[in-house]
Q: What sequence folds into this?
């Protein structure tokens, strides 16, 4: 038995499924998880001492790479001043200012502790601000695990093929309307039948059914429809925020959402989420407004220091260069796999990509589900054997980082060449 296997056996007696987040259990790719002892740059080292090349990067936060020296130094310095105050601290102002300066649609921002909290709070705010109850989300999009969204979430639930989940009262998801991603007509039809839609929440680039890009006009259409019907447009940029560009997807597509949800990268690896948007909407949030939201560790000084150090460094980083290197890697991976006879549809943007083992196009969840999950599981396991960690689910993305080197990419392609179907 390996040390990971021993740890996993014990973990399963103490923690549901042996993990603190379902996808980490690797069930959909038919293996047990590796336990990680440390990480630095583009690599993680298992408890067995094996160095693995990482394309999960903590599911997105580690855009600078693991254990970035500047981020680590900032956390170390913050620790010396204490770890939590339960009172305002300068770091909260500094990170809020960095977010407001970076994200076009954010005039004011509230820090929380996860992407789930961010989207849950943004929806409550939208309902409070508009006085309406219904929300529209898209099949295959995942906005965290708050009840309203577990109607047909992508990410974990799609991996486990659970459409919705026990424990969510039926009348909770009664206020959630679903539409296929990229289907503007479906959204238009919802608005024509429902006068009580408070908001449409969308991943501007969907990262939880695998990577699915918005069709031209889709996001613009959502902006027009919501404005015309007195509903808010909420961009869930937990993955895309500070990853597609320093200003997020909204700065790339030129769309002006009413509210934006952030997470992952803005905490630099520590637990941070945030929701922000137009000042006249955000000022409805307590204590200046009447829509309640709170959090003991929101604005935690260590997390603020890690987030600020991360954004400061990203602001000076060359996103275009990373996008070009990611493009070269992903296209070569797809070409090698096609030469092995596998049907592969590659979707890619910036430092994100997904290899769907099916013919394309892949523009929504139904098409994403045509991917050959067994072939993906085989690919995942063979790549892990070769020392490369991909997402343990066909419904996730691969994440590169500024720490990935040309040698890393060459090593990855060598591993792909060794794959046998
Ligand atoms: C677009 C989007 N919105 C919200 C969330 C929820 O964020 P968290 O509550 O996990 O911080 C996520 C979380 N992403 C998943 C991976 N696709 C987190 C990994 C996990 O669940 O362990 C997200 O992708």
A:
């Amino acid at each position: 038995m390996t040390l990971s296997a021993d740890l996993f056996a014990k973990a399963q007696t103490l923690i549901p499924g042996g993990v603190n987040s379902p996808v980490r259990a690797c069930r959909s790719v038919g293996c047990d998880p590796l336990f990680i002892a440390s990480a630095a740059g583009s690599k993680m080292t298992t408890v067995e001492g094996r160095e693995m090349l990482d394309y999960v990067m903590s599911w997105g936060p580690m855009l600078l790479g693991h254990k970035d020296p500047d981020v680590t130094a900032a956390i170390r310095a913050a620790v010396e001043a204490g770890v939590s105050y339960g009172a305002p601290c300068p770091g909260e102002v500094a990170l809020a200012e960095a977010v407001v300066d970076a994200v076009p649609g954010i005039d004011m921002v509230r820090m929380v502790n996860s992407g789930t909290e961010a989207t849950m709070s943004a929806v409550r705010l939208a309902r409070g601000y508009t006085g309406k109850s219904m929300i529209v989300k898209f099949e295959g999009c995942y906005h965290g695990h708050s009840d309203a969204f577990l109607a047909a979430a992508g990410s974990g639930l799609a991996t486990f093929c659970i459409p919705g989940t026990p424990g969510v009262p039926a009348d909770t998801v009664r206020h959630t309307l679903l539409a296929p991603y990229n289907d503007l007509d479906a959204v238009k039809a919802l608005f024509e039948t429902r006068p009580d839609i408070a908001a449409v929440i969308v991943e501007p680039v969907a990262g939880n059914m695998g990577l699915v890009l918005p069709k031209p006009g889709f996001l613009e259409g959502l902006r027009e429809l919501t404005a015309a019907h007195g509903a808010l447009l909420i961009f869930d940029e937990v993955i895309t925020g500070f990853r597609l560009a320093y200003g997020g997807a909204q700065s790339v597509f030129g769309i002006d959402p009413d509210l934006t949800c952030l997470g992952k990268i803005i905490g630099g690896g520590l637990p941070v989420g945030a929701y922000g948007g137009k000042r006249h909407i955000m000022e409805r949030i307590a204590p200046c407004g009447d829509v309640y939201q709170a959090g003991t560790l929101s604005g935690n000084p260590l997390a603020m220091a890690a987030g600020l150090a991360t954004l400061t460094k990203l602001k000076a980083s060359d996103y275009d260069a990373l996008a070009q290197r990611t493009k070269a890697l992903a296209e070569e991976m797809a070409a090698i796999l096609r030469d092995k006879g596998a049907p592969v549809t590659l979707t890619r943007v910036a430092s994100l990509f997904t290899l769907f083992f099916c013919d394309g196009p892949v523009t929504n969840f139904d098409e994403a589900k045509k991917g050959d999950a067994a072939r993906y599981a085989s690919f995942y396991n063979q790549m892990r054997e070769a020392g490369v960690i991909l997402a343990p689910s066909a419904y996730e993305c691969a994440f590169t980082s500024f720490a990935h080197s040309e040698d890393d990419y060459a090593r990855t392609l060598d591993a792909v060449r060794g794959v046998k179907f």
Observations:
- The chain has two domains: 3-64+318-418, 69-316.
- The pocket of KE4 is lined by residues 21, 23, 59, 114-116, 119, 142-144, 155-156, 203, 207-208, 236, 238-239, 263, 273, 396 (CB under 6 Å).
- The mean pLDDT is 95.
